[in-house]
Amino acid sequence: MNILLVLIPVTSLIVGVGIWLFFWAVNHQQFDDLDSPATLPLLDEPATDPAAASAEAPTAAPAPSGAAPPAADDAAGDRPG
Fold first, then answer.
1. How much is the pLDDT for 62?
2. Which pLDDT tens digit goes with each residue over 7-53?
């Protein structure tokens, strides 16, 4: 029964913090628009110009001019002989 001497004040503190957080949220307009955030994931992406999209796309770096492609038998050099 002595645990009630701890549980009642702790529970009262948690309830008090919850009530304070609720009123803080109301005063900071957190509950003003409840419908728009729910529909945002359903909206389509804005249309983009294909030419602008390809200009923004990253391209692979060109190969150095003096580099030759690796030979097919390079992997054989890795094996112990």
1. 61
2. 999 999 999 999 999 999 999 988 888 788 788 888 887 767 766 65
The tokens of 1 are what? 């029964």
Token reading at 76: 């054989």
- Return the residue matching tokens 């030759």: 68
Residue the block writes with tokens 């112990």 = 80
Q: Convert 2-23 to b/e letters by CB count within 10 Å (16 or more is b).
A: eeeeeeeeeeeeeeeeeeeeee
CA 66 to chain CA mean position, Å = 42
- Tokens 């309830």, residue located: 15
Round to whole Å and give the CA distance between 14 and 20: 10
